[in-house]
Amino acid sequence: MLVAVMMLVLIGAGALAVDAGQIYAERAQLQNAADAGALAAAQRCHAAGTCTVPQALGWARELAGPNSNDGASAVDSVNVDLSRGQVKVVTSTLGSNEAGFLTKIFANALNAPPATVRAGATAAWAPLSSGSGFPLAISNSCFNLSTAVATGEVQKISYKPGGTCTGPSGTQIPGGWGWLDRNSPCVAVTATGNNRVGSDPGNNPPTDCDTVLGGWIATILAGGEVKVAFPVFDDASNQGQNGYFHVIGYATFKMWGWKFGNNHNYEFRNTAGDPNMTSALACSGGNNRCIIGQFVKFETINSTGPGGGADLGTVDIKLIK
Asked: What is the mean pLDDT of the chain?
């Protein structure tokens, strides 16, 4: 009798320790799968501009299984809310032979039923509210973002005085040129809202950007792409070192070429004879300053705080549940 009673106690303790541990471990794996699936579906939905539930379900399944330790997670459901910019993914146990449940080791002896474990995650996208990067701002009145897709319009944005990159009232910081005060070599930290970012006067870019530009050139020559998220301003005031820009959001530009100065890394593929260039896009000679390329949609993952900037095609995607 004592042995029989103790066996029940030992089996119960084993069920609590082993089977409950198995359930918690499975729950953690399913959460990883749900998180990865939600982020993947949200990224693809934003990039496409729209998506259906079947499409989002397929994208979530591509990453749900691989992001479980056992490589086996089922995606039960996907909910897409484009009006709020959200995708919710629910995952569940796939189990051995795709049975959809965990077979318990000790609890079976107590006639306990199999267990199905689930986890859910919601990912949302929103315009960037802050960022750090190349210290150049562009005006919201000097470009066309309506074609922010891979096959969109190739544009030349000029920075020469009297050119196209000015504020909505035609204002331009004398000597400011759109270059920003830097927080570290060739990096400016900016934010939307009431924050103002200072102007760095002068026609040419900061000398500490030479290495960054050299890296861009190496990437393009190797067949890669250089995508730069530029801060976008709607107002520019004062002059020189006292000048400032009011940043409203961020737009990502796929660089084809540029002319920030003369020679070396400061100009690249900016003449009519360069690959993919035309006379209309060319930016050569004297004090001309420009970037050449196309605006594209771009997604970052968990890079900024709560969204709040203007939606210019560049968003941050993060898990909210």
From this structure: 78
